[in-house]
Amino acid sequence: MNIYTKGQIWAQRGVGLIEILISLAIISIGLIGLVGLQFSVSTSNQDAYVKSQATLIIESLSDRIRINRQYQNRDDTTVPALDATDNAYTILNNYNFRNLDACDGNDFDCYCEELPAPPAVMNCRDEGAVDAALCTPQQAAVFDAYEASCMAASIMDNMEVGVVALNPNPGAAGDPVGPNSILTVYTAWPATIWKNLDKAANDMCQQILDAQGIVGDFECVYMDLVIGDGQ
């Protein structure tokens, strides 16, 4: 037979409330961790989406350069011969609308909803083989840079796209980016910041952007392209 005194019975009061408070604290900590995990997953998904879209941009621009390779690789032996302006693909000013007038809205709405008026950008789209046939290779190169810039602007305003020859092969006639130069096609976007930690910027990415005079910490994807002699 168990015998309880009055004092012992009163000593048990309040223990259940303490257990409830401890349980609530544990649940709260778990919920905070769950929210942090969901945020991390969301950030990772966004990064993966941006990277996949950026890869599509450089693949598209690389294909356009291959199609127009005779223009990019002109020298003093090709027909037509080298022209001093035959480097439109590697001119930074042709990308991200630097060659167009300033605009107060976002880049895509300002420059891509409607094609800019000539001669800044000629319409080289193959619309019934009419407009494209009117574009010179030089105009097609500028148009390719414009279209790649619009693809980047549709993802985010601060995404950079361009082409740079880090180790160019100068032509005999003075072409700074001669035939068989290695072209690096890139897209770059600001490195995201989470938990007050900068994501490590790719060294090669920074080298590319430094060569272009673009300042800031960026993530990027890039592709090296050698298109051979323009025949």
From TrEMBL:
Gene that this polypeptide is encoded by: pilV
Chain ranges passing through the membrane: 20-41
Alphabetic keyword roster: Membrane, Transmembrane, Transmembrane helix
Record protein name field: Type IV pilus modification protein PilV
InterPro entries per the UniProt record, alphabetical: N_methyl_site, Pilus_4_PilV
